[in-house]
Amino acid sequence: MQGIMESIQTLCSGDHGNEGFMQDDEDEEEENGVGRLTSWAELLGFGLAVFSEAIAPQLQCFCDRTLGFAVGQGGSREAWIKAVAMAMSLVRKAVKKGWVGALAPAARVMSQALSTASEPITLDIPVPFKAHKVETPSVTVETSAQELTNFFKTMFIMRRMEIAADSLYKSKFIRGFCHLYDGQEAVCVGMEAALNDKDCIITAYRDHCTHLGRGGSVLEVFAELMGRKDGCSLGKGGSMHMYNKKGGFYGGNGIVGAQTPLGAGLAFAQKYLKVEGVTLAMYGDGAANQGQLFEAMNISALWNLPVIYVCENNHYGMGTAEWRSAKSPEYYKRGDYIPGLKVDGMDCLAVKQAVKYAKEYALQNGPMVLEMDTYRYHGHSMSDPGSTYRTRDEISGVRQERDPIERIRKLLLSNNIATVAELKTMEKEAKKEVEDALSKAKESPSPDSDELFTHVYRKGYGAKAYGADRKEVVVKLP
Amino acid sequence: MVRRRFSFGLVSRLSSPIYGRSPCSGGIWTPCLGQKRSFMTAKDLVESEEPEKKVTNRINMFSAINQALHTVLDSDPKSYVFGEDVGFGGVFRCTTALRDKFGRHRVFNTPLCEQAIVGFGIGLASMGNRAIAEIQFADYIFPALDQIVNEAAKYRYRSGNLFNCGGLTVRAPYGAVGHGGHYHSQSPEAFFCHVPGIKVVIPRSPSQAKGLLLASIRDPNPVVFFEPKWLYRLAVEEVPVDDYTLPLSSAEVMRKGSDITLVGWGAQLAIMEEACDEVSKLGISCELIDLRTLIPWDKELVEDSVNKTGRLLAPVTGGFGAEIAASITNSCFLRLQAPVSRVCGLDTPFPLVFEPFYMPTKNKIVDAIKASVNF
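ok -> structure tokens follow
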């Protein structure tokens, strides 16, 4: 049902690319293909096809076969036939463009959507889990065509967004610090598939895509990056401080490792209020050596808090490789008395499975550590070229073999969920969405200068801020 | 600008309970508790003391600091440089080529753990080594605050001089750069300025940075050395190539004046100089003092200057201006012709896009000078 609504939406918006019964040669057909019809039989088939597209999806297959049969015959009175066919194709175009609303064609998509959207597909995760003091979850994961398509779309949008942020930074629209997440999209997308809005996420500064996953919009992210009013933190936070209250996303934290004890606190609140949700406290391989992480792990294990510590191991803490900074780079075992799992972080389905498993565990038994084996293509931040401490071959090797978006693409194609052309369409849509958001964000104004003084303290508590000369009260803090 | 050149030589290990001996004292070091010092006041400024012609190089601040570190590691085999990412040269290139020249056992990276970096440095120093710890940004120094305040500062005192960690120097880039945001722009020097037992040193230029860093490392007290990151590349100067130290706890008069005294440190001095130039067109003559060492600070020099001019302005942010203001008001009360004023950042967290409004800019300083002079 959702598939049909999506298709209708897509069509009514005008972007639908190469759908239709003459799939790949759509445009050619408009010019040349119609001329191929040289017999009444063909014309009849053509007419029936148009009719079927406009009216009934179920006639699609029948008309395909009819047309196929008709084309096999020869014919005459070509010019006349061509003219009629041209008229009919015009009608079809009009209908196709969605002017008749809900009867818009692209029956193929609709029928496909009907038949395969939520049917469960079982797939096996190629890279096995590694476990520490706990059983591994099953490598067989249940998913659906719709879920995989959503994975693809979301990750593609995230990828485009990060690349756009890269060029924005280079053209000085974004200043300050910008830490990009491309390559690691599978982690946040896979996580979201296993979570709901009762769960909380808190992460470090590489948070643009996590924000998106928790319900933020691309416009909010771009505006916040550029320090504009429409940003999620009103332009006052910047790249490293994105938050979403409704989505339970607690940021967005600059100091490495400082967010992990906060995560323990969030989990305590959830447990106390019986919310049936977990907190995912995310951190990186660099932060895994911070003392406060171990303090947080100790108290969450002591009090059985429903917190999942997610270590996004991209193997480099800024410029330092994991083997040079950690005695034990097996971060899933670092919890010691806390059980852990090592997950292939470039595989959405593995991440989804692991988080689902960890959520069930955490709600019953207390904390768990998940190590996501992932990789970032960009450097640590925009001032880091990313190639002084690792070879370009390594980066391109990972991109070729383990890229999360390519993996989902292969799954979609091999399971016949989507065709190459449909995927291209989705990519085009995603690009357009990102570009639209970008241009809108560029138009957004800077925050007012009064905002400098707001939100220092709670509103109305009468605190005063003194100005530069310390003599006069500049403003009573709002 | 007069530079006093002090050769290193043997530093006596005789020490008073808290502060130890400074290489710059000709006689007995006295803690800055009101006793008279015998050198370097505004009155004693002898302009005829020209330093002999030295070989200099035109370099920027991070290169000057790099040279200083090379010199230390060369001259003392028991000195070590460590911190996050110092191996490849550091994020600001201050430690380039050190590892190649001196080896991985003396120049090494640490994991991401500021508290442990400083704690480890304290331990290393208490065994008689020179431990030069780098904190990547001063904003990250707070996990190490406990170690600095409770361990490093009090070590000599609580052990009755049996042990000390005088060989510890903690280096951290501090200050605003224009786009740093909340966590790459803070000036936390004031948090350390109220802790007896450590010294806080801030240079304003490449030549000052090299001399002060060499002095800080060789000072037998733990020193926190803040480097203005804004000036790393921006400040370029002729810096002597040889080994030289500048005296700690000795402020420097950058320009003489008669109407108002301005006290500052670090990158802010560049802004203050611009402000002084602007008001000199209005006929106001400003005396500009670079404090250089924040604790123990050269109170004498500032007092003498204020006794001459009658007005004081401290356009520096972070909070230490309050200590200067209180001290001077106390000692020069009858001489003051206008209240001591400060020009600081605003009472908000360091903002992201609002940084130009937040900073104590040249115009704000000019306004304050005018207000003080016309009081």
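Chain A touches chain B at residues 175-177, 227, 235-238, 240-241, 254-257, 286-287, 289-292, 317-320, 324-326, 388-389, 446-447, 449, 451-453, 456, 464-471, 474 (CB under 8 Å).
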